[in-house]
Amino acid sequence: MSLLSVKYLQDVTVPPKSKCSGDLMPFSEYLIVETNHSTMRLALFPIATALLFCSTAFAQPVTLYPGDTNNDGVANHFDLLPIGVAFGMEGIPRPGASANWQPQILFPPWPDALPVSGINKGFVDCDGNGFIDTFDLSAIVLNFDSLQNNAQPLPAPYPPKLVDTCLSCAKPDISITYSRDTLFTEEGGFDTLYAYIILRYPPNVPPPSGALGIAFDVAYNYDPDKIVDALTEVYPDTFPDTRMYVIATSTAARFWRLPAPGRMGFAAAGRGANVFFISDTLFVAKFIIDDMIIRGEEQFSINISNVLLVNNLEQIVCFGEVKQEPVLIISPVSEPDLKGFDVHLSPNPVRDILVIESPDTPVEKVEIHSLTGTCLFSASAGDSRRFELPVEALPSGVWVAVVYTQQGINAKKFVKYP
Fold first, then answer.
1. pTM score, two decimals?
2. How far lies 47's CA from each of 28, 309, 330, in Å?
């Protein structure tokens, strides 16, 4: 006879172990053997015993929480990395699977685990359909920042489970650049600042020496009177489309668990393959600056921490450093006891001579800046309250006059026309 398939028998009436005892034989000692002639029930004691012995490591039920793929006790952006490592793999579906944050039993568990952390791949199959794919990301977002402490095996921090480091992998840096190095605002108005977060690699790195995915925490200078955080937006680099993302901001994550204002979570990963080995933009963040209570000069910067890079073998990839130059925010709003301090520009629009008047305090210096924050030139005003500045050499467009006085700094936009 020809053997077609072997599987455990379920929900059957088992004959007595012997005619004398009347005891039932343990279920694990029975197999179904399907042939091209008939289906027969065989008591294959030695084979069954050997199979059970070999599968001892996977015989214990797995209790998991959907979205906590690395079983560290919390669902967050770092849980994208195991999905990237195990992407495309198939295993055992989870009976009664749900995306709800509640303990769910997987038995039998998947017959294999992640290569370094040893986490059973059933944890990574968030939706429980037996496939690891992009649909598993939804449970991370749904349960973002939810906590648990009773999974089986018990949860433990993820990086300590990663005991293998790729010493031959290239070490990238992160650079943060801004659309403007100086931000000028007008009283009662808003301005926009873009931050570009770029993963930088040395040239000519082969894909095997790159990284499959990266995850980290983001914090930035948050003041509810300065940043309109409800309008903060993040745009990941979606080219090439082989990348997956989990991004959380104080407004963009789902339901009631969100990062605090001024914080983000970011993760990007390839689908089973290294996708980071050349310098490339990870994401662009858009910030809306409200100048109404900013006083004088302030700095805006982004802090990136807890950077974790892994390759497609789940090895840690060493990280370099974060490099950036903070943005200077200059506001015309003065201190409360300087309420009368103001600056007037005329004519506006202007063609030849721009007149700067400061009725309340003498003008010391005037700088002309572009809208991107670049200073084109400056001129001393000689502590006068009225200063005439030739601007006929300026190209047509919108410019910013930054006026330094004895009582502070003010900035005003003006239009230069031919």
1. 0.67
2. 11, 43, 78
